Give the backbone structure.
Amino acid sequence: MSHISQAHPDRVEVRGRDLTGDLMGRLTFTEYFHLLLTGEEPAPAQREFLDLLLVAIAEHGMMPTNVAARMTLAADPGALQGAVAAGILGAGPVLLGTAEECAKLLGDARARGGDPAAAGRAVAAEIRAAGGKVPGFGHPVHKPVDPRAERILALAAERGVAGEHVALAHALRDGVEEAWGRPLVMNVSMPIAAVLLDLGFDARTVKAIPILARTASLLAHLAEERDAPIGFALAAAAEHAVSYEP
């Protein structure tokens, strides 16, 4: 059984609504995505911040996902969908962010109850003692802060959507600094997870937002690749950068 959609001879029904008679011309794509994903139309704050987060995470330069997509299109110029798929297949936590892991971590911290500051210190200390890494912290480029993360947190506070999970994100930042003995950059993944959870999104859907956002970015890179190809140049650069040792 599916609750998403059904096509009929005279209409298409999506989540119990008439696609052409109701949704088209009324909903934005962001609102429609929320409806498809959750079964509900978003409240104004949910739509606003879903838009904001999609913009924040969509593009980040010549990342390996974009390189893989461009090289795939260079090898098969007719396979746009294959090139997009190649990019998305490489969109794991190292390249696309750890928003899903951050959501799980925030959920675990919240389940402890009590003071957020104490929960943040305890979680960070436990991860440090186990020799692990805290998802949502560290970035190879953005130092001393990730500007995207700071902007999300500022807007969440300014517009009244920052709740318990955003408070836990701040507490984790303090706890990480204490456990590691130095501040670590909070990257964009942690505020994405915190804001989405505070807006009522299920933790299991958090990863969908960066995947959708990066799909838009991949399509932009592939449009540019068709007009100004660099895929083979990228492949050649990779070959020259790696030495062969028989």
Observations:
- The chain has 13 helices and three strands.
